[in-house]
Amino acid sequence: MAQQRAGQKRKVVEVPRPEADESEDEIVEGLINGELSDEGESEEGDSDSVEGFDEEDEDDDDLASDEIPSSDDEEDVRQQLRDLKTGGREITPDTKLMGSETGKEVSLLSHETAVRPLPRDRSDQQNYTISTDANGNPRFIYGEIDPVYDSDDSDAPAGGNTIGDIPLSYYEAYPHIGYDINGRKIARPAKGEALDSLLDSIDIPEGWTGLTDPATGQPLKLSKQELEVLRKITRSEVPGDGYDPYPDMVEWFTGKGMEEVMPLSAAPEPKRRFVPSAHEHKRVMKMVKAIKEGRIKPYQPISEEDREKAEALLEYASYDVWANEQAQADHPMNIPAPKLPPPGYEESYHPPPEYLPDKNERKAWEEQDEEDRDRDFLPSDHGALRKVPGYAQFVKDKFERCLDLYLAPRVRRSKLNIDPESLLPKLPDPAELKPFPTTCTTICRGHEGRVRTLSFDPTGRWVASGGDDGNVRVWDPSTGRQVWQIRLSREEAVNAVAWRPSEDTCIIAACCGETVHFLIPKNELCAPDTEARSQEVLSAGFGYATSATTSKTASGQDKPAASTWSRPSAQMQDRGCLLTLSLHTTPKILTWHRRADYFTTISPSTNATSTAIAIHTLSKHLTQHPFKRLKGLAQTACFHPTKPQFIVATRQRIRIYDLQQQKLEKELLPGARWISDISLHPSGTHLLISTYDKRLLWHDLELGNTPYKTLRYHSRAIRSVAFHERLPLFADASDDGTLQVFHGKVVRDSLENATVVPLKVLRGHRVTGVLGVLGVVWHPREAWCVSAGADGGVRVWT
């Protein structure tokens, strides 16, 4: 039985011919040669029997090395294999060996049969070691194969894991993580405290990343090139060297050397475009056959019912007026679509040289905004039409053209050819509005420092002024001569001067410090009867003051007097000051009532708002404070010329109070930051407001609480404003050193608005520091005005 098994396993081995390739049969058959020695030439005569085994022999050999021998036949086979591999038998001469020409049967082959050995390669060396397995049998362990240059395994990774795509999680229960190419187990790398202690004891090697290779479980080491690629990727840079993210534009049709290249092809037309299609011929023939057989009727006859319907429609036919859309003559109902203007020389690809822009024009066009450009392109010159590049604004132009057609009006409207100049109000010529002051005829000099206030007497013959020097001076406006003068204080300035509005008396009220002085000028200013009448008016109040009862507090004590009326010293009386009014505040504004018995004083600098405004009665020597609590800081005030109303101006509001009913009548919102002065029209229906924010506001009291007009003609703050009592004139004074004269016509008709025309700018005052013209007043009858400046001069304008 043993002979039969051995005979089945063995095969006839044919020794190759000398001229054939020695390694070809070994590779094709997949056999392992016998022991070959390169120790010396003396061993060339040694020969080993080479017997071939297929895969089944190798499997049997592996199984035999692991199994325990159980029969004599198996022991015989192992002995034959052992003799074949070890080559420890006697050497037979080459002449007695079996050649390749003679075929032997497999049953005759044994370990004693001589076989011609294969030619030996001197470069072959022993590449295995012999060891003993668990059963005591010899085991051959072959070393690693060193591949040559032409081998396919020259690029194979050394020591790689051969588990393929199998996850490493499958090996968690085993001490190894896979197998190498020789079938050896790859041990699991160290982890935990052993690895930490090892890393702490050594330096971080070059290429260390802290990552783990999923195939081997060992730390992943990267080369410098790979680390550089990762660094560039994390910085969003191009990982490859030599890559340009911004290459130069390739001008395919207009670039250098590409002018003649066109996108069209010059290849001849194919023949199939000229030969009729056989498929279409079949389709047509099928349709012709169907028509001949009657299955398709191209011209179906009209039925009687359809004919009757057509005749009925003809009786009541309707026509579509828009069916014919051909161009028609201009008609009010026909609105043609807007047409594009024909192209000019600028749009030509080869325009004349005078239409081409130079460098400065091109630069100016590029720096302009797209909305400010007169055209969307610049003319450019091209040698030929095929060299013209694509138009960048093509899509935008077409889109705007579609919008023009889509939004084209469908209703014809008659256009109004209106001249813009006709929309402006027709203002009269300033030459037609005379008289108004145009020239400075007189300059009154004598004050030391700034002149703060001015006032004309009711007759218009004299003008009084007060300044920082504490003097009150009376001037003749026609000659500029000083007629009378009195010094009220050497330390305090004269803040306000006002003549009593009565021609039968000659009284001047002047505010200096906290005292109001009542003056009667001497010399030719006042006639004897006028002087006597003036003294009676000033002295009438002392008798009333003695009989008047004083008010008391809740505890029964007398309230302190709000003011004190007294006579000045004899020296002051001789000089013309006959009465003084002492206040607890510093008044800076003094305004008389039209009846000449009442006047008001305003103290803007006081902290107590209840005493900022006071109304005084001259005939009774009585002082009243009408406001217990005033909203805002009072700036100025005046009386209505015809109604019992009192107008108070704070910094940002104008309030009109009814003195009889003692209530707020109206509140104006001028919208100013700081009001400086007000002036009421003689009719009482219009109010002028000057502000420190360089605006002059006109309020119509019968319309609303917002300004009717806002005039801005000054570059600095406006200090004063004044209406003329009889003529349609008003003027304002500003810190820029100028006076602006306006024509302001006010009519009684409420349907007609007031007319405001600027007439003249009067210049002459010198700006001192930041102050220019501080006050302006009008002559009672003539078109004259007098201005007071910070330069210490008083100028008369006629």
UniProtKB/TrEMBL annotation:
Residues 36-76 have a biased composition (Acidic residues). The keyword rRNA processing applies. GO terms for molecular function: ribonucleoprotein complex binding. GO terms for cellular component: nucleoplasm; PeBoW complex; preribosome, large subunit precursor. Residues 1-135, 332-382, 549-568 are annotated as: Disordered. Gene3D superfamilies: YVTN repeat-like/Quinoprotein amine dehydrogenase (2.130.10.10). Residues 338-355 have a biased composition (Pro residues). WD repeats lie at residues 444-485, 773-798. Keywords: Nucleus, Repeat, Ribosome biogenesis, rRNA processing, WD repeat. Residues 125-135 have a biased composition (Polar residues). It is found in: Nucleus, Nucleolus; Nucleus, Nucleoplasm. Residues 171-437 form the BOP1 N-terminal domain. Transmembrane segments: none annotated. Signal peptide: none annotated. Residues 11-20, 77-93, 356-366 have a biased composition (Basic and acidic residues). GO terms for biological process: maturation of 5.8S rRNA from tricistronic rRNA transcript (SSU-rRNA, 5.8S rRNA, LSU-rRNA); maturation of LSU-rRNA from tricistronic rRNA transcript (SSU-rRNA, 5.8S rRNA, LSU-rRNA). Belongs to the WD repeat BOP1/ERB1 family. Component of the NOP7 complex, which is required for maturation of the 25S and 5.8S ribosomal RNAs and formation of the 60S ribosome. Component of the NOP7 complex, composed of ERB1, NOP7 and YTM1. Within the NOP7 complex ERB1 appears to interact directly with NOP7 and YTM1. The NOP7 complex also associates with the 66S pre-ribosome. This is Ribosome biogenesis protein ERB1. It comes from Recurvomyces mirabilis.
